Amino acid sequence: MYDIIVVGGGHAGIEAALAAANMGAKTALFTLDINKVAMMPCNPSIGGPAKGIVVREIESLGGQMGKIADKTALQYKMLNSSKGPGVQCLRVQSDKIEYSKAVKEELLKADNLEVVNALVKGFIVEDSIMKGIILENDEKIYAKKVILTSGTYMSSVTMISHETKNSGPEGLPTTNGLSNALRDMGIELFRLKTGTPARLKTSTIDFSKTTLQPGDIKPLNFSRFTKENDIIQEQIPCYLTYTNEKTHELIHDNLEFSSMYSGVVTGVGARYCPSIEDKVVRFADKERHQLFLEPETKEFDTTYLQGLSTSLPKAIQEAMLKTIPGLENAQILKYAYAIEYDALNPLQLHPT
Ligand SMILES: Cc1cc2nc3c(=O)[nH]c(=O)nc-3n(C[C@H](O)[C@H](O)[C@H](O)COP(=O)(O)OP(=O)(O)OC[C@H]3O[C@@H](n4cnc5c(N)ncnc54)[C@H](O)[C@@H]3O)c2cc1C
């Protein structure tokens, strides 16, 4: 019997598990793979508008995000620095592999915390009270409280054009079990969607046709525990390129093959993070859209193509790159895709 069980080792789950353990509660974190904790399935950036404040709030509550973002930073940028202080916000591009490793280290050294690799498929509920969890092998584990932080993995479906797969991000498993168990408890679920752009092989990009976007010369850090000397000295730059009329024509001609536009996706976005199809249709008068080429990690030769999130077919994704300066010969390592998943209506949360 645990005091607290946390289901899901994403950013929310690891903070919840560490906070509970630090407060002396006997805690267990159940997650799909301890080597993939605090994964960044989209852009490995921390902070930015709205979310930068959340990072600092997490730190005020004793959390890890700010410290680990600083420790694994590749580039710092104060956004909106030409505007007033009210809208300025810090954003760090983190090394996604190092971030996950650093989180794993924190989890393994924490007292009162056990981390278990397992898929949770249901809950033990008695008299409308959550008593524990049920694992894929039907094992039952009891706890005084259960915290569910399963992110984008509940009944999730990934999509590239009309190809759909029952899968979590990065090919990790999904389960309908949690959704069904929550519905049985009378909890209302709805579908959310999001998407991610392709990852490119960095060495195949011609950066000479793009514009350098260096990090801040005097970067500010996220965590008050990070000393000035600990801030990375050599930042990795980002680069800027643009779509153009040829890219837009290709997108318009193939809209019917986009999961987002052909009715395959039914969910709504959790936040405003439009696909390139959306941008080209909604802002038809724009001749070009910005695309930032951003580093993901020092460990692999990969670049994140911010601004070109899409669910168009693989062949169209390849053709789009051929129209973009610097990306004409770029090799796609991972294709862009959309994902749809179950979420809980937060208006159902009540103090208990
Ligand atoms: C393609 C894509 C694009 C995205 N784009 C953005 C974006 O642009 N901006 C943004 O802010 N966010 C984006 N997100 C969402 C991003 O993943 C979340 O903001 C962030 O990861 C949320 O953290 P979390 O802890 O809530 O969940 P997650 O990071 O999703 O973590 C969930 C954890 O739960 C575990 N888990 C799930 N189900 C089970 C189970 N049944 N049993 C055991 N363990 C389980 C998983 O292994 C994982 O460790 C995107 C996600 C995807 C997949």
Relative helix content: 10-25%
* DSSP E strands, number: 20
Ends distance: 20 Å
Uncertain spans: none
Domains counted in the coordinates: how many? Answer: 2
Mean pLDDT: 94
Tell me which CATH architecture of the largest domain applies here: 3-Layer(bba) Sandwich
Which sheet architecture does the biggest sheet show?
Answer: 6 strands, mixed
CATH class of the largest domain: Alpha Beta
Pattern of helices and strands: EHEEHHEEHEEEEEEHEEEEHEHEEHEE
Question: What's the gyration radius in Å?
Answer: 21 Å
- Proportion of strand residues: 25-35%
Bound molecules: flavin-adenine dinucleotide
CATH superfamily membership of the largest domain:
FAD/NAD(P)-binding domain
Primary descriptors:
352 residues, six-stranded antiparallel β-sheet, FAD/NAD(P)-binding domain, six-stranded mixed β-sheet, 20 strands, Elongation Factor Tu (Ef-tu), domain 3, 22% helix, globular, 8 helices, 2 domains, alpha+beta
Would you mind describing this structure in some detail?
With 352 residues, the protein is an alpha+beta fold. It folds into 2 domains: 2-190 and 343-348, FAD/NAD(P)-binding domain (3-Layer(bba) Sandwich); 199-339, Beta Barrel (Elongation Factor Tu (Ef-tu), domain 3), CATH 2.40.30. Helix content is 22%, strand content 30%. It has helices at residues 11-22, 51-60, 65-71, 96-109, 177-184, 245-253, 276-282, 314-322; strands at residues 2-7, 27-31, 45-47, 73-79, 89-94, 113-117, 120-126, 129-135, 140-148, 157-160, 163-166, 189-196, 199-201, 211-213, 238-242, 268-269, 290-295, 302-306, 332-334, 337-344. The protein has a 6-stranded mixed sheet with strand order 6-2-1-9-8-7. A 6-stranded antiparallel sheet has the order 14-15-17-18-13-19, with no helix packed on it. Strands 11-10-20-12-16 form a 5-stranded mixed sheet. α6 (245-253) packs antiparallel against α8. The longest helix is centred in the first third of the chain and has 14 residues, at 96-109. The model has no long low-confidence stretch (mean pLDDT 94). Bound molecules: flavin-adenine dinucleotide.
